[in-house]
Design goal:
Chain lengths: 140, 571
Amino acid sequence: MTEDEWEPKILVFCCNWCSYAGADLAGVARLQMPTHFRVLRVMCSGRFKPEYAFKAMEQGIDGVFVLGCHIGDCHYLEGNHRAKKRFEVLEDMMVHLGVEPGRIKIDWVSASEGVRFQAVITEFVAHIKELGPSPLGGGR
Amino acid sequence: MRHDEEPRIGVFVCHCGSNIGGWLDVPAVAEYAGTLPYVVHSEDNLYTCAEDGLAAIRKAIKEQDLNRVIVASCTPRTHEPLFQATCEEAGLNRYLFEFVNIRDQCSWIHMSEWDAATEKAKELVRMGVAKATRLVPLDRSTAPVELVAMVLGGGITGMTAARAIANSGFEVYLVERRSVLGGLLNRLHKIWPTEESPRQLLDGLEADLEANERVHILTGTEMVDLKGFVGNFDVTLMPVEGNGDGLDLKVGTIIVATGADEMKPDGLYGYGEVEGVVTELELETMLREGNLPEIGNAVFIQCTGARGQRVTYCSRVCCMTGIKNAMELRELYPEASINVLYRDIMAYGISYEELYQRARVKGVGFIRHPKEEPPRVETGPDGKVRVTYRDVILGRDIVQDVDLVVLSTPLVQHEDAKELAQMLRVPLGQDRFFFEAHVKLRPIDFASDGIFLAGTAHGPKDIEESIVQALGAASRSLTFLKAGQVLSEPIVAVVDEDSCIGCGNCIEVCPYGAIELKEGGKRGQVAEVNPGLCKGCGTCPGACPSSSIQQLGFTDEQILAMITALANGGD
Ligand code: SF4
Ligand code: SF4
Ligand code: FES
């Protein structure tokens, strides 16, 4: 695949109660955004495991985004705190492997923030486009 | 068991009329689905959720001997229960169903990218197939429902809901943080269209509530803590003033009817600075108490603070309140000049247009001004208020010195609503009102089961609309109370005792204390999950060094298979 044809492939974890609902609301409001992301629904952002980011990038996925409820709003009290802590560790590991900062990211979107969902997705996709293919992707 | 057999997956791709089919190639997605491993049947339907779509699912399950079903359509948040029930009707365990969202999160947000949206839908289906292949049947368990309801907020909405629940034979706690019931109605003078005092309405309700032994009225009380889930909420209540004793309650359902406040428009149109400028509720208080000054002329300014000024929304009730009070002044002071300055009059519905027309006939003046040229209000001569406004018909500024300026301000959410929302674990919308699960399909529910929403806590509403929603919320609540039990989702954590090393990491991260160590396994100790306490958040698997704890329905195997399906095949 040549550089010009390259289109990023992005995996987005959304929690059922906030960010997934926010993504749905963006749809209801017909907010347009880039197509390059795919949402994987989990019940809580606390379900995210750093291992998933490695497995995804090894296989050629260019960016991993975790979206949960805002801090203080997690449906299960503190799953997003947990996710955030795990993310900090993951970010350090990624840096050691030579992965650019910002290729994996965690953020928060509430059920009523369709507009915010559009904004964070659009920005993330643009950033990954700028970074180019993942260095872990084995030359995909 | 069936699920040990080779998967036989059926994929149903929905056009949703033209909601999906108009923006991406649905037949191509269905055809592509048919090429994926283990998919033995795929079709596209105009509306998969309509009866013929559901019949097609049942038929294919029977005729093609399907043991997994995927619907690629709208969102699981609204339609998953329907398709799961359809699978069950055809003899398939409801957890062998997998949802793929290609509308809200695909066709609707990529409306000018037919090819890329079609590609995305195919990939989402591919991920869904990867997960479906690894689904196993699960069984729901039942838990009893505490046969008690709690209503937060003792205004007309909360009172109405509480009475309806009690009349249906259930205990109900009515919790109001002020010292009296009645909420905003206490501050009104008259209510339209009956032109009666709100007291008549409130006194009748209050008498009913007090006479019913199943109703427990707790005024001057607020909720300070909430734990648990539908059917089994643990509530802690405390007196608002002083340090009296708290009260711990167990309730099955909760209705949020905490109402709204009138916006105090500090700094707008001289409010708080110019003598003689009041809000509608302040005027109604004066009318009720009979201490209005003599009025020769008065001006009402509509949409104060609303529709872009301080909040974005139209508050729905302020046009009617303004017109009602303008007429009241008209009647009290027949010689006075009463003018309503407005941007647009929203006299919606059946009875309000009539009120508006009646006000015009009675000689209330209605003067329109453009949004860009709002009236100006300042201190005038001789204790009067000077109002300068643009008359678009005359095409010039009018200066009037009046006795009273009444500002029609919107209803706004209470300052501290966020705290309550966090306690309840329910969302607030952009305008800070409580946010329902779905605007059309679940307008009284929150996404969290067992918590319902009514009245102005949900957004500006008039009395009638609040009462209607109160009865709706009571009825939703009664659905759970009458059932007496709830089915719990079986997507709980399970431990593989052979590989668990008994480290206890999972115990530490569980927010519900659902995991304990017990004797057993190869190393003497293993984790054990109490499925009654586990709420299925899935946080514990991330803490386990040996991948020994898994969340059913969201296992590592399933998630990793989805990731692989997304990554590969994209080349
Ligand atoms: S899934 Fe969540 S609630 Fe259940 S045991 Fe694990 S951490 Fe606790
Ligand atoms: S974290 Fe894993 S290994 Fe440790 S006790 Fe829990 S299940 Fe067992
Ligand atoms: S449920 Fe959204 S982050 Fe926990």
